[in-house]
Write a structure and sequence with these properties.
One of its GO terms (cellular component) is cytoplasm. There is one protein chain. With 625 residues, the chain is α+β, with helices and mostly antiparallel strands. The strands form eight sheets. The protein has a six-stranded mixed sheet, sandwiched between helices. The protein folds into four domains: 166 residues, Rossmann fold (3-Layer(aba) Sandwich), CATH 3.40.50.300; 85 residues, Translation factors (Elongation Factor Tu (Ef-tu), domain 3, Beta Barrel); 106 residues, Translation factors (Elongation Factor Tu (Ef-tu), domain 3), CATH 2.40.30.10; 125 residues, Winged helix-like DNA-binding domain superfamily/Winged helix DNA-binding domain (Arc Repressor Mutant, subunit A, Orthogonal Bundle), CATH 1.10.10. α12 packs across α14, α13 crosses α14 and α16 packs across α17.
Amino acid sequence: MIVGTAGHIDHGKTALVKALTGVDADRLAEEKARGITIDLGFAYADLGGGAITGFIDVPGHEKFVHTMLAGAGGIDLALLVIAADDGIMPQTREHLAILDLLGIGRGIVALTKADLADADRLATLGTDIHDLLAGTTLAGSRVIPVSSLSGAGIDVLRDALAQAEAATLARATDRRFRMAIDRSFTISGAGTVVTGTVLSGRVQVGDQITISPLGAAARVRGIHAQNRKADAGLAGQRCALNLTGPTHHDIHRGDVALDPLLDAPTQRIDVLLRVLASEPKALTTWFPARLHLGASEIGARIVPLQGPLQPGDTGLAQIVLDRPVAATVQDRFILRDVSARRTIGGGSLIDLRPPARRRSRPERLAVLAAMQDSLPKLADLALVDLDAHARDHALVASDTTGVALLPGTHQALSPRLLAALRQKMQDELATYHAENPDLQGMGREPLRMILTPRIAKPDFTAFLRAEAAAGLIALDGAFIRLPQHLPRLSDTDETILAQILPMLRGDARFRPPRVRDLAHDLSADEAEIRRILRMAARQGRIDQIAHDHFFTRDTTIEMIRILRELPQQDGWFTAPDFRDRTQNGRKVAIQILDFFDKLGLTLRRGDLRRINPHRMDLFAADGSD
């Protein structure tokens, strides 16, 4: 169990921790000289149950609330300290508000310096504290009078903490490893050491981890868990990790040590935000604040998604950060004002990859409403990348119960939504064919933009391939059609085309005659020949490489294969190389290459070109369907 102290300055938090553990948590010379806690202090003790309880002692001075916040994340129980002689003070209220916003639901109130107050004073304070806690997550917490000086009540408090330790549920170790770093330093002969609270998962000696958002790789060479040497550190423990890789100068408070698969920092987050009733004015668009997340502190701008958030309101908002941060969905956060004088509010993270535009659309708000569950059902969401979902929730794998996969992808959606998506695609293609019977099919991008939910281009390409393999659609180069649709040529047109095709094949296939030459040889009208060839091109039987210059589809595919076989330097080839292989003239060779450039099948840099492997499916030149 991890216990975090909270309370006003000089109410005896550090003295109480020492009375409970025998450890003076003030480690800095300045802290001892001034008699106040400035940085986080740590102590460990067996309270009698055989388990080691860790204590995080935080500063009480208002100037060091940011340090208090760095220690408050990840605690199991709050030890709210209130001095009997002073009573409830400003930082008592602010620390309690922070604990409430962080969702910390277990706590004990230590009424310190009880030897300085009589029974009536203690009784009155007990009532005041009961009223103070009402309506917060610590409502009903036990109040125990103690004196660190005389020792009165210390055993009672220790027993209460031991009972809480026994009732503490183990945190999930089946998730991926994350540890919020609050200190980084060097030990002579050992090297870099980082300390923090393990938020999820487990880490073992020899593990490869990443320091995020830095992105630095590190290896764990040693572990101390709850102040004892260990082979592994588990969720819920305070750990010190001895690392190889980055130096302690590279690592800062607020960084997160984590499983490398979780390293995906974000700079924009959708959240559920509660504004404290004490806030003097509403939060409006681009409201400036300081975000406290785990042990990190970052400048932020707040964008309410449902109108201004009034004092006491809870609503959806987007937070735009000054720099990237390592985070996980459902992490709790605190917002303070930019002058660091007051706490504004706090809440939980909902979506780590939200859109920057159209973020307040009704359909987007509906998705965010579904995402507010600690682990929302994927079937309730529009379209979810399973890999990203597992990563952002620190899961080993997402639960796909009741969901369907978008064919060819790792995108999950409800079966109902997949059926609607497929039907919409069929309907749109049928309508397009009815309105354009002579056209080959619909362009990929226009179709993608019509469908809901909107699918990213790489996933849409994979989806189309899977649907084509299932026989639900047909792919013709850059066009999509229903399998039964083909642009129609009349019998007369087919007769003329049958005369033309042999003239486009054979030895002259790489430099076939143009429309005017074909019309001359067939004693036909040039416009009619052009019309027939364009219709055949829409059918995918031939390709118009340049104006009035048509090649058979077989020849197009053959030329693509030639491109792949050309001698290359670092993947690049030259136009003369292609010209020589096709025994063509320079002008025609350039026209052919320009045609491939426009389709994105080749990429050009000056006089050099290279194959774009991502577009090799346009003419099934990669051997796929």
